[in-house]
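Take a sample.
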Amino acid sequence: MNTKLYPFLIVMLYVVAGCQKSPKTSDAAALKRLQTLLNQNEYFKLDAEFKIAGDKLADVDRLYFGAYLNNAFNRNDDCIKDVDSLLQLSANLPDTTKAALKRLQDDSYFKTYQYLKAARCDSDILKDYSKALRKDVVDDIKNDLLIRNGLKNIPAQLTVKKTNTTIAWRKDRIGLINIPVTTHAQTVDAIFDTRANISSITQTYAKKLGLHILDVTYNEGSGATGIQFKTGMGIADSLYIGDILVKNAVFQVMPDSILYIAPIKFQLNIIVGFPVIEQLQEVHIFKDGKMTIPLTPVKDDLHNFALNGLDPVIALQSGADTLSFHFDSGAGNSMLYEAYFNKYKQDVLKNGVKKTVGFGGAGGTQKKEVWVLPKFNLGVGGKTVVVDSVSVLTKPISPGEKFYGNIGQDFTSKFSELIYNFKYMYIKGVL
């Protein structure tokens, strides 16, 4: 389940000739490889190629690709500095490139809860570069600005951990992981959803739990269906997950009907999403119903976790290839996107079965024609599991879709323990 806030980054071709003079010129072949990978949101392959390129890159190009990599791997302060340095060094960049870089900086400000600075980035783009952008891009930026302006006077979210924390989780009637959260002396179950770009709550529960409702309305969409709807915002001044205190947690406040799954008569009430989960830094989910959050995150050589805006992305082995997928702990089942169908069409048509399948998300449900693969092998950190009955979409959910699918609990449940680390950016499974 996903409520998509931040659209895919609009990556524009960087024109070296348009920049001010640099001490040297980048190797053309290396530059082309890097730009191609960036355009495809292939962050893991881009990172590897960037390290290989080394001194083949001019300073401005190193800053440019470094900014995107720092953003993708959750090094947001470095991304913000890179963009500032690049815009100062290269005043003659095309307006489309400047706008893309300012959007990147906006994303890093937002992910570090600097809402006023994020709002200024969006305002600058609309004031200085809107004529160079497509209408749909301008509309997305205006929508983002509504959110940032709504939050600009809200203090930054702060998470206080004093010790290692252990809590129990359970699955609800539709198989989603629920954890207990407490605010204003009331404890309720909340869905644990890495791909919910902002935590979400129904109007009924927002009132029940005493959230401070903001005067803002904006457009939102479901990642599973692409359905668009209107939503508001509210703030939980204090939210406890076990002994962990989260201050100033932002929630989307939705009409109850948006989070009601009519075909199965099931009401979702509260979803803890990415901004809260990320600030926990490291989470261990055990198959036996235990979740632990260590005081200090552990470093690991595994490097398979990235962020596309606020969407978590995981690199998994699939056959002889390594592919990038959305990572969605709030989805019961994995699905493969059009990009996978196009790349492996022959295998899908040979081994799959054509069916019409229903998909649900915030805002409603949809039926889609898919090919269902009876078995699908996926590997993480050298450990391979088999996922049953995976749907392959033949059409995109949203424009500009570049990843190969969405990985849900039918994959994660294969492990006795799964570790999410947002500080050192890895996901590790224990069988």
Remarks:
- The radius of gyration is 21 Å.
- Residues 315 and 321 are 10 Å apart (CA to CA).
- The domain at 3-151 is CATH 1.25.40 (Serine Threonine Protein Phosphatase 5, Tetratricopeptide repeat).
- Residues 1-23 have pLDDT under 50 and may be disordered.
